[in-house]
Amino acid sequence: MAIFDYDDGEALGKIIAVDTAVVVVRVDELERLKRVQVNRLVALQSSKAGQHLVGVVSRITRKAPEITTDESGDDADEVIDLPENNLVRVSLIGTLIDKQGLLENIFRRTLETVPEIDANCFALEGKRLTDFMQVISNVTGDGPQLELGKYTLDENATAFLNGNRLFQRHAVIVGSTGSGKSYTTARMLDQVAALDQANAILFDIHGEYKTLDGDEFRHLRVAGPGDLEQGQGLDDGVLYLPYWLLGYEAMVSLFVDRSDQNAPNQAMVMANTITDAKRKYLTDGNHAEVLANFTVDSPVPFPLKEVLERLVYLDTERVPGARAGADKAGDFNGKLSRLIARFEAKHLDRRLGFLFQPHAECMDMEWLPRLAHALTASRGTQADKRGGIKIIDFSEVPSDILPLMVSLLARLVFNITQWTPVEKRHPVALFCDEAHLYIPERAGRDGVDDISVGIFERLAKEGRKYGVGLVVISQRPSEVNRTVLSQCNNVIAMRLTNGDDQSVIRRLLPDSLGGFGDLLPVLDVGEALVVGDASLLPTRVRVGEPRYKPNSATIDFWDRWAGEVPESDIAGAVLSWRRQSAR
Fold first, then answer.
1. Would you say 521 and 499 are in contact if contact means Cβ atoms under 8 Å apart?
2. Which of 440, 514, 491, 527 is nearest to 171 (CA)?
3. Which end is more exposed in the chain, N or C (fewer Cβ atoms within 10 Å of the end residue's Cβ)?
4. 109, 124, 396: which is closest to 239 by C-alpha?
């Protein structure tokens, strides 16, 4: 039986205006108007038999009729009996095709037709709403399904997202602190992890996803100061990001002070010196297949000490002068002092040991393929058949270099997939937690932010072609780069209380659903507004509970203050601070 088997007598009202994706319905009876609620669903008669259009109520207005007046301006003795002008604005979201020779009813996110003037509008409630939501939940033939939770409209109906469209067309998960953003991320990772060939990377900035356990997850952490003497490497879950992985622009941003009048010379000399060091490494190692075509940006190991020694030589070089027996300063004599000072300072900085004091294995040409395999290979191709979801802990990386390090890994993943033959590519999704820290809207100093933003902008624009999906996660969407956000065609928005953040998300919503943005400050904890290509029905969803809850470190202030036994470890905190490690 068809879901929408309405009689004309059940109509709320009739359509009096039709726009591209918006219609206006006039409701003559006040009692029927009271049944209509903003953000609830309605069904509208279609011009095609066996179909109904489905829409969301976006506005309700009630306006009393104007009193007619006589020529003097006084109320007329006889008032014309006009109905109240009760108007309901409806944003159209799709078409329900009732079962007619089909195995089941079908809902499509497209407008097969537009409604006609005077067509009936019906409330979608009760059993009809339940049956319609069941159609949404049981949808088949529309791609793999990621189970997010339950619809707020009907808690018996499961909210699914189309897994292909979610990651192909990128997504954004936003919400104020405590709204359930990390909870939602963990739920999504749960769903992905259940797949046999799962392949995703989570940039865990604060170490709150350590609690995600099991064979589906592989935990890696960027080495901290305490790891430098312990000799642990990639097999132990300790990740080094050696300096030779950096591209030319990143090296310049780290070592060259752009305000120095000698900055152009320093950048040129550094590039030539690094190129020579890489050439020597390839020559000594008999890597002829790479030697013929490498560039300064090629990821080839080289000893940093040799580069530093070459720079010191050029900075103090004396060359023969015009007169016999006399010499003069070389072309770069005294012009590289600040560059050398920055080199030495960063090389000795233990906070940057993961970058400039890498594990011995990192200086081997075979280390990069191992790293790339650990990061980009699916669970089924891992030697131990574990770790489809790679969680990378950046909690011990200094904040001033964090954007460069996160973008370095993102660029590595992108380059690996880009250079993999099309038939061999396995898609990978990047979950960018706390994205405002390394994909900022405003560029920072030293060009570090510019480099990070540039890499993620390219990923957002071109990643789909190479099988790289982005999930941008942030509590401050107004501080995330606009270009990256504009490429995210799926929005999962939790409660947002800041006006600027709300405005950013409203701009990401379709014009016809702009009113949904008004829900952002009133969403419950764990409730999300879901709109986009992956969502069959743009609506509110109560996110399901993940198997492993992230450690968001939320402390119950009042309970702790009221407790009888105090908890404190100040001495341990000071020691960890001095060691720059919590372990």
1. no
2. 491
3. N
4. 396
Return the biggest CA–CA distance within the chain: 120
Q: Looking at residue 538, what DSSP letter applies?
A: -
Centre a 10 Å sphere on the Cβ of residue 457 and count the other Cβ atoms it contains. Answer: 17
For residue 378, what are the CA distances in angstroms to 61, 137, 219, 466?
54, 29, 15, 15
Contact 84, 65 (CB under 8 A): yes
Are the CB atoms for 162 and 536 separated by under 8 Å?
A: yes
Contact (Cβ atoms closer than 8 angstroms) between residue 542 and residue 150: yes
User: What is this structure's pTM?
Assistant: 0.86
- From first to last of its 583 residues, the chain has per-residue pLDDT tens of 567 888 888 899 999 999 888 999 999 888 888 888 888 899 999 888 888 899 999 888 887 655 555 555 555 555 444 455 789 999 998 888 876 555 577 888 888 788 889 999 998 888 888 888 878 876 544 555 889 999 888 888 888 888 898 999 999 999 998 899 999 999 999 999 989 899 999 999 999 999 998 889 999 999 988 888 887 888 889 999 999 999 888 888 888 888 888 888 899 999 999 999 999 999 999 998 898 888 889 999 999 888 999 999 999 988 887 777 678 888 888 889 988 998 888 888 888 999 999 998 999 999 999 999 999 988 888 877 788 899 999 998 998 899 999 999 999 999 999 999 999 899 999 999 999 999 998 765 557 788 999 999 999 999 999 999 999 999 999 999 999 999 999 999 999 999 999 999 998 888 777 777 888 898 999 999 999 888 888 888 999 999 888 887 677 788 888 888 888 888 888 887 777 666 6
Residue 161's SS3 state is strand
Tally of CB atoms within 10 A around 353: 22
Strands (E), 10-164: 13-18, 22-26, 41-45, 51-63, 85-97, 106-108, 120-123, 145-151, 158-162
